[in-house]
């Protein structure tokens, strides 16, 4: 058995681009940034903040939600699977692209509890129309600071 599942919470880097096809299907693409905090080791070495950029691909009914509501700077929760594809650029060099094929895209709001389905959870998933929801993040704040990077 194997599993290909990715969960990301990050800020949208630029407004999504949407492509429509003659068949009526559409695909939206955007990028999000996730960051790890910087820290200082016990020996004084500073490890800087690290930001990772992720290419998100959205299809089917989720495209309308993304096109209408997701904007640069939005804090979003993305759940999906990772895929890598390759292509030859115009000069003939083989290039590789890693993308997250989103099964779910939601707004992520700090400080509010997630809504339950009975209370009207709204999210862009494969089984329901595109909408929004919120979730409360887990914040680990130890009593004593330490210099472990994790």
Give a verbal description of the structure.
The protein has 150 residues and is mainly β. The chain has a single domain (6-37, 45-125), classed as Beta Barrel (OB fold (Dihydrolipoamide Acetyltransferase, E2P)), CATH 2.40.50.140. The chain contains 1 helix and 9 strands; from the N terminus they run E-E-E-E-E-E-H-E-E-E. The protein has one helix at residues 62-69, and strands spanning 6-12, 17-20, 26-36, 39-40, 46-47, 50-59, 75-88, 94-107, 124-125. A hairpin with a 5-residue loop joins strand 7 (75-88) and strand 8 (94-107). The two termini are 29 Å apart. Residues 116-143 have low confidence and may be disordered.
Topology:
Layout: E1 6-12, E2 17-20, E3 26-36, E4 39-40, E5 46-47, E6 50-59, H1 62-69, E7 75-88, E8 94-107, E9 124-125
Parallel strand pairs: 6-8
Antiparallel strand pairs: 1-3, 1-7, 2-3, 3-6, 4-5, 7-8, 8-9
Give the key terms:
mainly beta, OB fold (Dihydrolipoamide Acetyltransferase, E2P), two-stranded antiparallel ribbon, 9 strands, 5% helix, globular
Task: Write a concise synopsis of the structure shown.
This protein has about 150 residues and is mainly β. The chain is built from one helix and nine strands. It starts with 5 loop residues before the first strand and ends in a 25-residue tail after the last strand.
